[in-house]
């Protein structure tokens, strides 16, 4: 895969000696969706700002398609579209005029066909001649995406793209992001909604206190760190775990009506078959069995906590 953004030993230190980004290294691949997760103040927005040239770099380097973001700012900015977290729009401007203005900022000539297709893709075409103040919050966020894509960039940064958007519109936004990926746009998003990253991202990056703790392909991360919990409901309650079953490290509920057994996913042998066999050998009967798998949110919380 081709690297489209390369970040080497990046540091961002503010005047009060606050380290916002600490020696961060990251390669972003062409055509992928990468989600950056982290608590408030982790450094996610600062990282985006440095890549987009909106914030200075203390040390290190960032290259976008081999162009340096400091020495070749104009070239890198032409490749990048940015959707900020804040809804900063001119309320009395028409949708189409606002998008045309953003395109002209990059020195691009008017292209009605491209802009109409963009508006159709974002489900804004029927709103093109309406004023921005008449739109809902979800539609305004789509206008921000249209403005960011107005100059046909290869990379799109989305800073909390579904913040303040209801569940139905959030899912519509996910569909839009997936469609943009199909068109070859590389997408980097920050989000507080871990479900969002789980639904649409190819890779997950976790940032905390300016440190990039982890970057990994989503499915690989879930498989590597995921744990399944088997809940075994018993026909008759027990006071303690029998000696025969102690090697399984079971956790008995205070009621004695069920116990929990944790096992790693992806292993050739989970131990479930032998557990059930040993239960049968000592006459312990089960009522039913339920399983629950670790979610990406559980993994995220564990990494941040650790």
What is this structure, in a nutshell?
With 306 residues, this protein is α/β, with parallel strands linked by helices.
Would you identify the CATH H-level superfamily of the largest domain? P-loop containing nucleotide triphosphate hydrolases
> Would you list the SSEs in sequence order as H and E?
EEEHEEHEHHHEHEHEEHEEEHEH
CATH topology of the largest domain: Rossmann fold
Q: Mean pLDDT, as a whole number?
A: 89
Count of domains = 2
Biggest β-sheet strands, sense, barrel: 6 strands, mixed
| Number of helices in the DSSP assignment | 10
What's the Cα radius of gyration?
A: 25 Å
What amount of the residues lies in strands? 25-35%
Q: Which spans of ≥5 residues are poorly predicted at pLDDT below 50? A: none
Named CATH architecture of the largest domain: 3-Layer(aba) Sandwich
For the termini, the CA-CA separation is: 32 Å
Characteristic key phrases:
Rossmann fold, six-stranded mixed sheet, four-stranded antiparallel sheet, 10 helices, 14 strands, single chain, alpha/beta, 306 residues, Alpha-Beta Plaits, 2 domains
Structure write-up:
This protein has 306 residues and is α/β, with parallel strands linked by helices. It folds into 2 domains: 3-223, P-loop containing nucleotide triphosphate hydrolases (Rossmann fold, 3-Layer(aba) Sandwich); 227-305, 2-Layer Sandwich (Alpha-Beta Plaits), CATH 3.30.70. Helix content is 33%, strand content 28%. The protein has 10 helices and 14 strands. The chain has helices at residues 44-51, 73-79, 95-105, 112-121, 137-149, 167-182, 194-200, 218-225, 272-281, 296-305, and strands at residues 3-13, 19-29, 33-37, 59-64, 67-68, 80-83, 155-159, 186-190, 203-208, 211-217, 227-234, 251-252, 258-264, 286-293. Strands 6-7-8-3-9-10 form a 6-stranded mixed β-sheet, sandwiched between helices. Strand 7 (155-159), helix 6 and strand 8 (186-190) form a beta-alpha-beta unit. Helix 3 (95-105) runs parallel beside helix 5. The mean pLDDT is 89.
């Amino acid at each position: 895969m081709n690297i489209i953004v390369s970040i080497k030993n990046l540091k961002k230190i503010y005047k009060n000696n606050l380290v916002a980004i600490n020696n961060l290294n990251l390669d972003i691949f062409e055509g992928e969706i990468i989600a950056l997760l982290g608590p408030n103040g982790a450094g996610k927005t600062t990282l985006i700002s440095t890549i987009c040239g909106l914030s200075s770099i203390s040390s290190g380097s960032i290259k976008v398609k081999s162009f340096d973001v400091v020495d070749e700012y104009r070239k890198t900015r032409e490749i990048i579209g940015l959707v900020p977290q804040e809804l900063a729009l001119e309320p009395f401007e028409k949708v189409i005029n606002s998008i045309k203005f953003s395109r002209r900022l990059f020195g691009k000539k008017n292209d009605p066909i491209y802009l109409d297709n963009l508006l159709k893709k974002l489900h804004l075409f029927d709103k093109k001649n309406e004023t921005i103040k008449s739109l809902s919050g979800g539609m305004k966020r789509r206008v921000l995406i249209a403005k960011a894509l107005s100059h046909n960039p290869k990379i799109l940064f989305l800073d909390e793209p579904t913040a303040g958007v209801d569940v139905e519109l959030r899912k519509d936004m996910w569909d839009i992001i997936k469609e943009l990926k199909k068109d070859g746009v590389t997408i980097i998003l920050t989000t507080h909604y871990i479900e969002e990253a789980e639904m649409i991202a190819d890779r997950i990056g976790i940032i905390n206190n300016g440190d990039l703790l982890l970057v990994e392909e989503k499915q690989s991360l879930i498989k590597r760190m995921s744990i399944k919990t088997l809940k075994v409901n018993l026909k008759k309650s027990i006071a303690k775990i029998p000696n025969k079953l102690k090697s399984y490290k079971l956790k008995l509920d205070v009621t004695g009506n069920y116990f929990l057994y944790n096992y790693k996913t992806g292993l050739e042998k989970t131990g479930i078959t032998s557990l059930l066999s040993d239960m049968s050998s000592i006459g312990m009967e089960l009522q039913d069995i339920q399983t629950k798998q670790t979610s990406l949110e559980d993994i995220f919380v564990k990494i941040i906590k650790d």
